[in-house]
Each structure stands twice: as structure tokens, then as C-alpha cells.
Amino acid sequence: MGNGxxxxxxxxxxxxxxxxxSSDSPDERSPLLPKPPTSCTVxxxxxxxxxxxxxxxxxxxxxxxxxSLQKRSERIQDLSEAQGGEGPVTARAQSRLRPAxxxxxxxxxxxxxxxxxxxxxxxxxxLGARQSCVKLEDSGSAHRSRRRQExxxxxxxxxxxxxxxxxxxxxxxxxxxxxLDAVLASPDSGLKCRGxxxxxxxxxxxxxxxxxxxxxxxxxxxxxxxxxxxxxVSPAAWDGGCGSAGTDPAPCPGGRSSRGxxxxxxxxxxxxxxxxxxxxKKLTLAEHPSGVALMNGSGPHDSLRGEKEPRQNGHEEPExxxxxxxxxxxxxxxxxxxxxxxxxxxxPFSLQVSPQEMVQEIHQVxxxxxxxxxRTCFSLQLDGNVLDNFAELKTIEGLQEGSLLKVxxxxxxxxxxxxxxxxxxxxxxxxxxxxxxxxxDCNSLSFLSVFxxxxxxxxxxxxxxxxEMEQIDCTPPExxxxxxxxxxxxxxxxxxxxxxxxxxLKVLTMSGxxxxxxxxxxxxxxxxxYVITVEDRHVSITASTRGFYxxxxxxxxxxxxxxxxxxxxxxxxxxxxxxxxxxxxxxSALQKKRVQRHPFERIATPFQVYSWTAPQVExxxxxxxxxxxxxxxxxxxxxxxGQTRDWNEELQTTRELPRxxxxxxxxxxxxxxxxxxxxxxxxTRGAMAVIDGNVMAINPSEETKMQMFIWNxxxxxxxxxxxxxxxxxxxxVAAYVAPTNxxxxxxxxxxxxxxxxxxxxxxxxxxxxYRVTAQSIIPGILEREQEQSVIYGSIDFGKTVVSxxxxxxxxxxxxxxxxxxxxxxxxxxxxxxxxxxxxxxxxIIGNDGRHYILDLxxxxxxxxxxLPVDGEEMPEECKKMGFPKQHRHKLCCLRQELxxxxxEHRYLLFMKLAALQLMQQKANKQESSGVLExxxxxxxxxxxxxxxxxxxxxIDDNVTGLDxxxxxxxxxxxxxxxxxxxxxxxxxxxxxxxxxxxDTSFDIRFNPxxxxxxxxxxxxSKEEVQDQKQLLKDAAAFLLSCQIPGLVKDCLDHTVLPxxxxxxxxxxxxxxxxxRYLGKVVNFIAKTPGRAQxxxxxxxxxxxxxxxxxxxxFKTYLQGVELSGLSAAISHFLNCFLSSFPxxxxxxxxxxxxxxxxxxxxxNRNLGNADNTAWASMTPQELWRNICSEAKNYFDFxxxxxxxxxAAEEYNLQKITLLREISLKTGVQILLKEYxxxxxxxxxxxxxxxxxxxxxxxxxxxxxxxxxxxxQSGQAKVQQGFLKEGCELINEALxxxxxxxxxxxxxxxxCLRLLARxxxxxxxxxxxxxxxxxxxxxxxxxxxxxxxxxIQEYMHLALYCFANSQLSTALNLLxxxxxxxxxxxxxxHPEMALLDNNIGLVLHGVMEYDLSLRFLxxxxxxxxxxxxxKSLKVALSHHLVAxxxxxxxxxxxxxxxxxxxxxxxxxxLGEHHEKTKESSEYLKYLTQQAVALQRTMNEIxxxxxxxxxxxxxxxxxxxxxxxxxxxxxxxxxxxxxxxKDLENLKAEVQRRQQLQESIRSGEQLEPEDKAVEEKxxxxxxxxxxxxxxxxxx
Length: 1593
What we know:
With 1593 residues, this protein is α+β, with helices and mostly antiparallel strands.
């Protein structure tokens, strides 16, 4: 599909590329996305933990944190400056920082952001400007010098690109000058953190525009639509009238959606408002220009309802620069207007447009509308004048409300004809999911519509389902009921009705008579097509300059003369309509359906998502796909001036874009993101081609392992130890790990983003057992030897070392955020050389004059637990756990998150020590009074600091002491003579104690070369090296003594709730724990008291150990298999791994084809050197023995199992879950069918069950830093209870995310989730439903249909459906979530209790009491296991069960459960707590009911049938009461507050913050403790200050 995109719309390539409009535009036209998505938990997708942590996970998973904190650090006093990325801030820890900091956090917004929309505004404008400047293609010049790019990107439109259109320019320029610049100039705007290290998982979306580089390469490579924007059309964009944008499948590039102008329009409007009511903070995007229909057709969004009031306490300070810039504000009247469009063959229709739009966008709309989608080659004319595609509507004379635009058919060229055919093919394939199953063109699956029957969104208003309950069928399928043991696989991908494609044609393909001979060319023939209609009519069609007609050729005779009648039509569809009635009927039905799909179902994702299962799909003929497969260029790049893309130039040019203010940063980030996603796709495709043997090596004469390749301007090398490079580090094993370490280095340096320092585009691809590294090529490096070009670092691991002042200067800037110490090493001549990185890091100046650094595999310090060094003693904690341990390679590094957490930990310690000493000094001064200020003696202080150290340092105590220290440290650092020597001494001692490299301020850094084989240090730095060694040992010990126990504790508290291997790995990584510690973590869990409450984590840990060990074995196993034996080999491996069949036999590939002549073995052809059939001899026993020894050697964990059955039995694992995990890790795709794992008579898998093997790709994820800050500030506001302001900020974040990532991205998904939750809490149920629906669709598309996050999203959506009275939909969604969870993990998981409570409540609401009880009682059992039978969650569970029994009139059981609940409340909360009172009231009521019932029964027994029966009250629960309980268990609280309450609440929040600040060093504040108790007590309301927070119930 993606490719289609292009074609689809590609009218002007460039314009595609440069379109900058938002990528989401609501309704068919207006590209304004009214409601911005909001990413909620920043980083990849929030870790589960994060999600649970609170509705808005206040916790920002580490990476994210990293970025933001950095920023925050300057502001928050207790955070060290060093804080580049407070890695593992665990949910808990962060919440600790919360109250005090939250308020401050709010200030994180760089002031420029404070400007909010205004800021955006400019962005938009500049974008607009740029758009206007890009008329690249016309300018014809294919050359792509860098200059040109710079032009294109010229700052806010001041230089126009060569062919550009000055018209647009004026507008762009002025506007951009808007008030932002000033605002932006504010000090903060520097925004240090450019987004933390991209999270691994997150996938991005083709971002919207490829600005600069685009110049160069215009087309996006995958047809990923060039920018998200255009093509992809903003997801939202369509839906409105236009149906889907851009041909459907891949909405066309260039599409309406793009963002620019409209946003501008909108913004400018705001600007006016801003002027008018400076005081009143303008609403974010609440008012859209009139015509903007909104997404989902839901009419102007209410999401912003709240925003009309001035922000209560959203930054009221006037923004700097607001006034100063007044005179520059150019007001654009942007009221949208309506034009009439008159296209041949249909009635004229009107279209809402905005003056900022380009003509191009109207083209996109027309190519997407149901009735005009078959046209691609046309121009728009006003009064006979052709409109220029790149002109903005407002620059066109005479265009006004009611103007009539004519669609005029233009003559075709070969290029236009191909685009037309491609577009038609895309329209025909628009509902076909095969691209998603095949993992092509960034398509991925989504099944939400199957469960909602498409009735979400407006259905709330449309058909109030469920008010009459009778017709709801609530029975879940058998396998979903609690206790069911079967785990069917087919239900994972239910058959979507729309997929039974309506067949329009049997065949549409290029004819073998192409290209036309010279004499026909001169008659205007462009190309020939061959078509077989459904009625089985074979026809030959000529595409000529005037259109399409039938000719007289047949398959074997060439006769280009027109047939009779020739039926000349300008569009291929019109021609086919005339010759095939079936085509006519089915094509129009197909377009109707296409237009009804939710845009998010068809927009391309930024990075490819692969599905591990797929149904058997028919392989259909497809000329476009066939053509694409054999062109080395990607997608439709032939249309780009200048052919293949120079990736390096694009990647570096985008980094060089200016970033002084918000619009510039947005443009820059969007460009970086876009190029990265294109580069990743190209690299993946190239890596597969290399392994499949389709690329010629550049050193073909060498042995296969040593070969290197260049394809499409990307350099590929294999993960083998070439020329003994890694001999001292572990040979091939080290060569295999080095690329991922290098990638982490690239990721980090990119995040620090130092101007003038360049890294290579890097992608690591694992495919068919091989690891391929793809890198962009440094200009000139291929022409010279490496020795000559390296001017910094070492090419032989430290023997010869060189340095360079410019590199030192650049790297020095990164040393603080990366905590790298500048150090000296000796080279082979014993000269001292100064470095600011590890020796392996090489600096090369390319022919383009840029300073590149590469080989960043040792950016982080070594992990001493896995690097035994002779003569070095490890700390006690390490020895106790059996470290140091010899690992397979010597490249083990600590993770960045660990380094950050360790530094943070040391900083707290530093503050405590200093505060303590200051206190003691004071105490000595005040001895007369004998009492310390806070009444706590120094000893307490000490005890306290010890204690807090053990807990990762809580920040509550000694805050003011810390304040003094902070001030003191700052004065000393500024070298102010005014500090008295005693205080200096205090700081010096504290620095020394924590290992700081400076003795006047806290500054911890690591020397990455310590313990590196072959590196020698000069005598002069002996002492420094000793300190560094100690620091490394401390860090290794910190990981074992703080981080692992911290992780386990978070799991016990359920602040971290992994559901599968990926989410467990993410939780470990956020705390800086590498996966090689997995065995230790699992052992630690096994020994933890309360082990039963960690059952789920233990189980995930074991299955992760097994599947990771199996993956290691699978990797080498596959290397010995040639292509023809792949499916046989993989199915054999899976049989040995999972099947109970005792002796599976591999079918050698010789079965299908036997060659007559024995060909002599050609040496060397396939990469593995093993005998090609060695794999066939593997047996299950041998494989499991290897898995156990691998687990022991690699993870140091002893598995006790000799077969799959024993493992499943012993550890209670599900084979289907193991199958999912191994498939995801290795990229295998299997057939969707029911597998019988336990048959002892035949193997589970056959060759036919293995459908494909996909690459597993690791790449950098560029971040949207500004959006991220908005997001975090929004979260902070919400945490403090300022919902409206929070909502505004998050809407703003959503806009910015859309601007950078395009419409699809994990962070946008998180943003939407949070926004939906806020809408819900603020009572706007339908808006909540619409946002959450988008979040679910996006999560399915970007993370996968059964990813734990998707399961969460389904649960939230079900709640909002219930609130909107769509009961049956709510149940379907909950059943789907339960099914996915059973498949991914099984039943025994704390999250399952929440899910079952939800299902039970809904069933109770629809009066299905027996079913309801099954789910509620299961939830009760699970809660008791994981939360302890005395917890409040369990009490709530008892109450829910009692209510159902009451409805069934089984009062005895009801009483019994309610009594249990009452007892728990009484013990936990005391007699007088309101919960206890409620419970006791309910008990009385039940007792009365029971007595009344008994009386009635007695009456009946006595008097027989004529008894006088009192009518009993059996109440069916009201929907309101069910909803109330649902909100409680999901942790949502509505507090009906009057204005006065709100004021009090705010006052309370502020009071708490002050309290916290005023707590002095030793004392613990009693009120705090009380608050804490209440928190524990009441699951539903964690603390008064936070009106809504998710209890993890």
C-alpha cells in the first residue's frame, strides 16, 4: 500500500514531501486536528507500571524521564544537575518526588512553550512558509546539493527555494516572525534535553514532513508517505466528507492532511484572540475555523470544553515577549469559506476550505472522495485559469465564498499513467489485509472494528443500544470463562467481514508488449495493460496521452489499433465500468466501504510492525507489487529528481536545521523523525536482501563471513569477528553484541544532540540467524584507508591512539550529560593522549567537513559483575550473589539508566552528608540551648540518612538542610570568596565521600576505558584511576543491592505489572538492569518472602529465560540452513521445542525437487559453513538439554526440566505463550490454526505451518522533545488536580506530537489515553469514547494486536462504552481483553482480577447473575492471592460478590461475603471510617431482607398457596450504581465539587507542598503520615489532593 501512496497522489513529488500540515486533520478538509493526541506515558509505551501507576502515569518511564528531568533539574532543587536522565525513576520513586515537585514540574515548560498555541502557531507558519517554498520538482533541477537543501529549509521562509513561490512566502515569513521568537528566546528555551534515549519499543509514524532533506531526496522511501502528513492524510483528516484520504490504503501523500496552513489559520486566529484578551489565556484549539469538521465526524470537539475559562493557574505570568512583539503580529483572517467543485460526470458539490491551504490539498481530497477518487491527472481551473498546485488559496485572485472550481482532465505522461494505474490498484486493494500480514509498507493489523461492529463514535447518539436489555447476548465463548484450559489461537485474528474482498477484476497487469515501439510512441501510446474481467473477458488496453482505450492486441498478436468501439475514457475506472458490469457494481460498493473505515485503520505506521500469525491468504496477481519487488529503489522513487537517496546527507542535514524557537524545533524534529523512519525501512529491506544473497559484496573474493555490502547508499556488515578484531573480547560473540552496544551509543549521543558532532544512521537487523549492521556512509571513507582517516581515538583497541582538539571540544559538551570523564591514556610510544570517550570511539572528518564519531560501543562504563579482573576485589554485595562471573564476551556495559540512577542516588547521599555536617556545626554553635532547631538530634539525622540511603533515598527529610547545602554548593561553585572555610570543608568532605571528581561541587563521571584490555594509563593519573575503579565497583554493587530489590519491591506493590517478556524487559531496563541479570532477578523473587504474590513475575521470568535461551540456540541453528530448507528447519525446531511428540523427524528439502545431476558442492555460497543438513538431526531431548545449559551459562539459572511438557508442568507455563514469545523474538510467522501441542502421535508443526520469517529490527527512536514537555506538565497539572489546565496542556502536546510524528505513534497513543480519561472524568463520555477508540486503534497498529498495552486500552474503552450505554459492545471488548490476556499470560495475573471485576459488574448490570458470579469469584480468588486476604481490594471484591448474591436473593451467601469485607475494613481502617460504616449499613440491610424473606417462606409453608405474601424488594441494579462501582475498581473518582471545594482543594495542595518543603532534616511530619495511611486505606481515593488517580484495584 505504501507505495501506492505515492502514486496515488503524487502530483508533485516534492510537494508531497514538503507538505507540512498537521498530520491530523479532522474532516475531510480542514487539516486541523482538533484534538491533539496526547501521549501519555511518554516513552515507548508506558511501561505497564507506568500505566498502572495512575491514570496518568505520573511516572515517566525512565527514558522519558531522562529527558524531562534533565530539564527539570535546573529547577528542582533536590535533583542533581547531573541528572541527565534519572533513569530508573520508578513509579514509586517518582511519586515521592511528586507533591513538592509536581508543582515545580509544571514549570518545566520551557517558557516558550508556555506560549502555547502561539508557539505552535509559529510553527505552523513557518511550515507554511516552507511549503510554499518548495516547488522543487518544477525547478527541475535534479541536483541535490546541500545548498539547495539549506535553501529549502531556509529559516522561516526567508530564502525561498529556487523554484519556490514567493507568494506564499510573504505570508510565511511575516507570520513566522510572530510573537514567538521573542517568547522563544527565553532562557529556557534551550531545552537541553532532546528527548531521551528513544525507547526501544516505541514505533513511530512517518512523520510529517521531510523538510530539508527532503530537498534532497524527495520521496520518502517507503511510500511511507512522504510526510506523514500528506500522504497519510491525517488520519483524522478524513473521515469527514472525504472519506478516507488518499487512496485508501495508503492515503495519499500530499494528502489533505498535511498540517500546515490550517494549523496556521487556526493559530492566527488565536493570536488575534490573544491580543484581545491577553489576560484570558487563549484556549488551545478549542475553536476551529468554522469549517473544520472534526475527526470522527463528531462535530467540534468538546474535548476542549474546559478551556474556555482562563486557566486557573496555568502559567499566568505574561509571556515574555508578548507585548514587545505586538506590532509583528500579522492577523490573518482565516474564516474558512466554501467553494463549489464541478467535476466531469457528477453533480457539483461544495467543499469547505481555508485560505491557508494549498491547491494541492484540494487535489488530495478529490483523489480520496468516493465519487472522484478514480481521477489522478487533472488540474483545477477558476474562470478558465489553471491554479498552481503550490499556491495558497488566499493568494489566488478572485477565489472567494461560492467560487466555482472546475476539474479539468489533463493529458497523461508515462509517469502520470503509472501513477494512475498504481492509484487504481490501491483503490482495489483498499480493504485487503494481505500487506499487513506480510509486513509490507508499514501496514499493520487492527481488529477493534470487529468487536465494536463499527458502532462507536457517533453511535452514542445514533443508536442507544442496551437501554432495552433483552436483546443483548452476554454469553462469552467457552474458552473465555474462568477456569477454562483451552487457549485457541484462531480467535486472535477474527475474520473481518470486509476482508472477503469484492472481486472487481481477475487480473490487471502490465502487458508483455511494453514499452510501445517508436512508431506507436509517436501516436501517443504510453504503455499497454492487460486485463481479465470477472466475466472472463480478456482485453488489451492502451494508455495514451488522451486516456485509456481498448486496442486489438491479444496475448500473442500485437495490434495497437483501437478496437471497435474503443471506448476512450480519461480514467481507467470509467473504461472498466463500460466493459464489465461486475466491476462497476463491486468497485462502487468497495469505495463506499473504504470511505467508512476509521482513518487510523489505514494510515501507515512509522516503523513496520510484524504479525507472528497469519491466516492462509490467497496469493493474487499484482503488477505493482511485482514491479516494486525488483526495483532496487524503494517505492516510487523513480519519480524523484535525482534517484537514490544520499542517506548520510539527509540524516546530517536534518540535524543541522535551526532550532532556536518552537516552530524551528518542530520542523527539525519532524524532519529527523521522518528521515529516520525512512532510513530504518530502507536498511531493513537491504539487510534482508543481503542475507537472502541478492546483493553483490564489495569484497566478493573473501570468505562469506567477512563480506561487506553496499546497497542503496547504505553500508552493511555481518556480525562476525572479521580479522580477529574482537579476539581479546570474545570473538564472534563480542562481534555479535558490539552492534547493539554501538546503537545504544548512537542513541545516547543523538539524544544529547550537540551541534557539530555527527553520528551515523545505524540500524541493527537480526534475520535468519544473522546479525546485520546497516550504517549510512561517511562521505569519502570508501576512498581512503581507515588508518589515514581516523584523527581521534584508536583503530586497534588502544595501541595507537590519537586525539584532536576539535573532537575534545565537541565531546567535552557531551561529557556532563553522559557522565564521561576526560582522561589520559598512553599510546604505543608511551606518550600521553587526552580523550573524552572510550579509546574505541573513532573520530573521522568526512569529505563534507563534518566531524563524525563512530564505534560507540563503549560509551557506558563496563559492568564489573561480568568482567572478572585479576587482583581486583569486588564489594561484599557482589560476592554474596556469586559475582564477578565470567561472561562470554568482555563488552558488558552498564545501561545509561543505571548510570543515571546511581548518580542520582549518590547525589542524595551527598546532600544528606553535607546537611548533616552543617547541622552538627549549628548544633555546636547552639550548645547553650542544647536543642537543635527541629528537635531532632544529630544522631537521628544520621540514622535517618542511613535509612533513606537504603531506600534509594527518599526526599522528604532534611529538605531545608538540603536547601542550605544547595545554596552553599552553588556559592562555592561560583568561586565566591564569601564562603566561610568551615562550609567549604563540609562540601569537600561530602564530595570526597561520594566519589565526586571535583571537590567544590557534586560531579560524578565514569572513565569508560577502565579495565579495558590493552588500554594503559599514565602514572600521573594513578590515583584518579583507583577512584574510578572504586566507583565502578560501587555501581556494580548498587545494581545488585538497590536496583534488583527495588524492581522486586515494585512488583510486590503492583506498581510494575509486566504481562509478558517484553514488558518485563522494559521494566528491568527502566531500572538499568540488563537482561543478563534475569536469572538473578528470578532467583531473588524465588527467595522473597511473600513469594506467592510474585507468582506472575516468576512465571514471566522463567518463560523469558527459556525462550531467550532457545533463541540463542535457534540463531546458530538457522545459520546452517539454506533457503530452500527454511520452513522444514523452523517447523522441526518448534516441534523439538514445544511438541509432546517424542521423536519428530525433519523433512529434508529434497522432498519436493530431486535434481538429476548431482551438482558438486559449491564452496562458500551459503553463509553457514556447517553441513547444510546438520539441523535435521536435532532431537527434543538434545534441544532441552541445550536450553538448560544455556540458561545456566548465560543467565546463571538452573532450569529443572528436560522437555516442554515438564517445563509447562513444573512452572505452570502455557505452550501457546511460549510459542508467541519465541515467534516474536525470532521473527517467525506461523499459520493461524489450532495447534495440538500435546499429541504424542504426530508432531505439532508441519512445514506448511511456517509462513514467513521476518527481521527483528533495532533502531533509534527520535523524540519530540517539546511535545514531551507539554505532556509532562499536563500530567503534573492533572496530578495536582487542575484538570482543565492539564487537559489544555495535553491537547497542546497532542498537537505537537502529531506535528512531529504524524498521526501514528506510541506516544500519541498514550496521549490519547490520558485525554480520554480526562474527558471521562470531566463528564464528557462521548468525547472520552472517541479518544479512547483512537488510542485502541493506534495501540493495535503500532504495538501489536495482543500487546499488553493494547489489552489495557481495550479495558478503558469498555468502561467508556458502558458509560455511553453501549453495553453489548462493552462486554465484547472486555471478553476480547480477557482472551488476549489468557493467550499472552494465562489466568493467574493480578490484572486479571481487575478485568474479571469489570466483566462481573457489567454482567451484573445486565442481570446475568450466575455468569457474573463466576467472574467476580475468580477475581476475588486472584485478589486474595496477589494482594493478601486482608487487603482493601479484597474487601471491595467481597462487597461486589455480596451485591450479586443479594440480587439473586441468596441472602445467606451475601451476608457471609459482606461480613468478610466488613472485618477487613474494620481492621484496616478502624470502626469510624466511612467505608466501615457503609459496610455495616449494608449488612443491616441484608439482614432485614433475609429476615423478610424467611418470614414470607414460613408464611407460604403455613398457609399454602393462599398465603398473604408481602412483595419483596428484589432490586435489579441500576446502571448508575454499576457504573459507580466500575469507576471505583478502575480507580476513577468523581468528586462533585463546588467552586468553594475546589478552592479549598487547591489551598490544601499548596499547603502540602509547603509542608513538605518545610520539613527539616530529621523529623517526620505527622500529618504526612496520616495522609499516607489514608492513602493506603482507600483504594479509590489515593489522596485528597488528587481527584482521580488509579488505584491499582
